[in-house]
Specification:
Layout: E1 2-6, E2 12-16, H1 26-44, H2 53-60, E3 67-73, H3 74-83, E4 92-96, H4 100-110, E5 120-122, H5 125-134, E6 138-141, E7 155-157, H6 160-168
Parallel strand pairs: 3-4, 5-6, 6-7
Antiparallel strand pairs: 1-2
Helix pairs in contact: 1-3, 2-6, 4-5
Length: 171
């Protein structure tokens, strides 16, 4: 039998009551979520941005609508983006519990764009599936030293420096 519980990002899922020999309950899930969020925030200052991220954002800022969609819990995402000094680079920053498809759709509606007028760039199948569901063109980002899990027909670049170079090629 399955019992409902809440994940760290606030989305409702069904958990098996016997996971790791412990019955899940809201208090334990919240405690683990807070622990995860704390560890995430502790490590953010040691992370470097994806190569080319700053120039890519700077070259698009004021010319294209830029939105950050992430599976990280909203309050943690806001803190991370602020610590990295990127808050002003985005027109919106959307984290969990909002799903990526819903976030993409909200952007299309808010910016009054048709799907072919947008571009989703992501590093996971979650973004690809959300973009495909709405018929938004997609570019995958996969580090050369990590496995590329995108389907063969997906355009995949190693980082945002490559995306910036590709974008600037048409100027």
């Amino acid at each position: 039998s399955r019992a409902p519980c809440t994940c760290f990002d606030g989305t409702s899922i069904a958990c098996r009551s016997g996971i790791f020999g412990r019955k899940p309950d809201e208090a334990r899930v919240k405690m683990l979520a807070a622990k995860f969020g704390g560890r995430l925030l502790e490590r953010v200052h040691t992370c470097s941005l994806l190569p080319g991220a700053k120039p890519f954002l700077a070259n698009r800022h004021g010319h294209q609508s830029l939105h950050l969609i992430c599976g990280t819990r909203q309050r943690d995402l806001d803190t991370i983006v602020a610590r990295l000094g990127l808050t002003h680079d985005f027109d919106s920053i959307v984290g969990a519990p909002t799903g990526k498809r819903d976030a993409f759709l909200s952007i299309l509606v808010g910016d009054q764009m048709l799907p072919h007028q947008a571009l989703a760039i992501g590093d996971s199948m979650t973004e690809l599936r959300a973009a495909q569901a709405l018929r938004i063109p997609f570019i995958g980002i996969a580090s050369p030293d990590a496995p590329d899990t995108f389907p063969a027909e997906t355009v995949v670049l190693p980082n945002l420096a490559a995306a910036d170079a590709m974008w600037n090629c048409g100027r």
